[in-house]
Design brief:
The chain contains twelve helices and five strands. The chain is α+β, with helices and mostly antiparallel strands.
Length: about 240
């Protein structure tokens, strides 16, 4: 059985079909496969490591915590991002300080805060209780819960939310729209505006630029009683954290 598991682990780096089949079988084997995956993890390529992270999340074996923390130092930004998300999903509290260091490393590399890696690390820190997003009173009051407990705000209130957040010095990064139908949530295309913030600008300028662009998006946002918007935003402390 051990030899079979080791073979499956090596297949994680194979072609997509082979890797998917190995992933499914390793998940089915469960925690008994964890030691072999941990042993092979450093030798796997980026694709194999990402697939291993998926196995770790599905199996939910806390023994993978130290290995996931180690992957926060990977040369592959997607591996770092997925490792961060997995650490939060598995509730590995010891990951808080490594996650903070990984986030600082993103800032030092000048990775834009709206890219997926810093976004994923912020989410992980929030889930582990180490980051508290600023939620102004009006935004908090208008918030609702869509299907599957996904947070969202009625799209009809999008402009109010934008102004409330930016009035409280929050920078809006992007927004996603969702439609709820028969208890299920579906992604909805919103306005496709090609805008990008200059992160070298003063914070106050970033706030107002994000307000302007987001209000333009709001003017073309999908509407309806079952349409919700989920904006993502950051506070000044996310761009200039205490060290």
């Amino acid at each position: 059985m051990t030899t079979h598991i080791e073979k499956l682990v090596q297949q994680l780096d194979g072609e997509s079909g082979e890797s998917y089949d190995a992933r499914a079988e390793l998940i089915d084997i469960g925690s008994a496969a964890t030691p072999a995956i941990l042993d092979a993890l450093p030798s796997l390529g980026g694709f194999g490591q990402l697939t291993a992270i998926e196995v770790f999340e599905e199996v939910a074996d806390p023994r993978c915590g130290p290995a996931l923390i180690g992957l926060l130092g990977s040369d592959n930004p997607t591996v770092r991002e997925w490792a961060a998300i997995a650490l939060a999903s598995l509730e590995i509290d010891s990951a808080v300080d490594p996650l903070r260091r990984a986030y600082l490393a993103c800032l030092e590399r000048q990775t834009p805060p709206d890219w997926t890696e810093p976004d994923g690390i912020r989410w992980a820190l929030t889930e582990l209780g180490a980051r508290a997003p600023v939620v102004p009173p009006l935004t908090a009051r208008l918030r609702t819960t869509t299907a599957d407990d996904a947070p969202g705000w009625p799209s009809a209130h999008f402009a109010e939310i934008i102004n409330d957040l930016t009035d409280h010095a929050q920078v809006i990064l992007y927004s996603q729209f969702w439609r709820v139908d028969a208890g299920r949530t579906y992604s909805v295309s919103g306005a496709r505006l090609d805008w990008e913030l200059d992160w070298t600008s003063p914070w106050e300028h970033l706030v107002e630029e994000s307000r302007t662009w987001s209000l333009l998006e709001a003017s073309e946002a999908p509407v309806g009683d079952n349409v919700f918007v989920a904006p993502a935003w950051i506070d000044r402390t996310d761009l200039y954290p205490e060290r």
